[in-house]
Design goal:
single chain, Immunoglobulin-like, 3 domains, 4-stranded antiparallel sheet, about 20% helix, disordered N terminus
Length: about 350
């Protein structure tokens, strides 16, 4: 009797455990199906709207229409580099204007894609000055998705000049910056708008038949040639000589040092405000000059007021040099057409010089 009751109890216990496990499996299966319905299936229907009351699946959203396309070719005279021109595109719609800029290729063609709606105006500009060469006020554009083709003839619209620059002693000048601008009228701006640097010859492209030319070079005075209408050689002259002497009671050799000076223009020349760093260095300061005796001669490129900055060097070992800075208060000199006969004795920081010698 005890064995039968025990067997019955074991069967009931096994049946309850089986039902419990089955319930857990059913719950997990239902949870998985619910997750798929809520999260996975909506993300599979991309490009369609969901939630339509009719139960129908709407059509996919249409792709945006292609923009307008502008392509063309520019014809130029022989020798004119198409890459010197930039195409400026203006799209005007209502009160708003969009501006774009594209350089021409080496063959003189251009291609502008996806232009937005609006009237289109084209301007071809030249060089660093962005001088306008030719303008098309309103381009007859094809509809969207179609190509508008232009053939632009600019032959005769630009002028080529070739300049070969020679140094003060007839040698080909190498470290040169050549500037040019449209020939200046009485009240016109005097800033040189374009420049090129490097050895000669220099080829210049201008939208003007008459130009003003200027050249700056190491150890030469600034050369200006107004009203040029043809190619020609340019001859530089030696810069303005300036003689500078030490104070009579300063003898660097006795003090065991070498003295050097550098001249710098007090004001920059506004005509050459577009010069590069090297161009400004040539124009506004001399290299450092070591005094071998009690006086030295420097060469400056232009007339005007210059600062005189001093420096001393002392050799402390075979490979080591100590620099004594003496630039607390630079001296000044004024270079004029007749100053080549003047021996300048600018301010020299004597007390600072002696103090530096004592501390070194």
């Amino acid at each position: 009797m005890w064995r039968e009751d025990e067997h019955t109890a074991m069967q009931q216990s096994y049946t309850q455990q089986s039902l419990g496990r089955a319930g857990v499996l059913v719950f997990l299966l239902l949870a998985g199906v619910t997750f798929l319905v809520l999260f996975f299936i909506p993300f599979q229907v991309t490009g369609y709207r969901t939630g339509d009351p009719s139960g129908e699946v709407p059509a996919p959203l249409p792709a945006p229409e292609a923009g307008r396309i502008l392509q063309g070719q520019v014809r130029l005279d022989d020798g004119v580099d198409p890459r010197s021109l930039v195409l400026k595109v203006e799209i005007m719609e209502g009160f708003s204007t969009m501006s774009l800029a594209f350089p021409l290729s080496a063959r003189g063609d251009f291609s502008v894609m996806d232009l937005p709606p609006g009237d289109v105006r084209l301007t071809f500009v030249l060089g660093q000055s962005e001088a306008p060469v030719h303008t098309i006020e309103e381009v007859p554009m094809e509809p969207q998705g179609r190509v508008t083709r232009l053939d632009v003839d600019l032959r005769g619209a630009m002028h080529l000049f070739t300049f070969e620059v020679f140094g003060p002693f007839g040698e080909p000048a190498t470290d040169v910056m050549l500037f040019w601008r449209k020939a200046r009228e009485d009240d016109g701006p005097d800033v040189y708008t374009s420049w090129v640097r490097g050895p000669s010859p220099h080829v210049v492209t201008s939208s003007s038949e008459w130009i003003d030319v200027a050249v700056i070079a190491s150890d030469a005075r600034v050369l200006e040639v107004p009203g040029v209408s043809f190619s020609r050689p340019l001859q530089l002259r030696e810069g303005y000589p300036v003689r500078i002497a030490l104070p009579e009671n300063v003898r660097p050799a006795d003090d065991g040092v070498s003295l050097a000076l550098r001249l710098g223009a007090l004001e920059s020349d506004p005509r050459f405000e577009r010069a590069t760093r090297r161009g400004r260095s040539i124009l506004e300061e001399t290299g450092e000059v070591i005094l071998e005796g009690e006086e030295v001669e420097c060469i400056v490129p232009a007339l005007g007021v210059y600062e005189v900055r001093w420096r001393a060097y002392r050799e402390v070992s075979r490979d080591g040099i100590q620099i004594l800075h003496l630039e607390d208060q630079p001296g000044q000199i004024e270079v004029s057409p007749g100053s080549h006969a003047t021996l300048f004795r600018p301010y020299f920081p004597l007390e600072l010089y002696r103090e530096k010698l004592k501390d070194s």
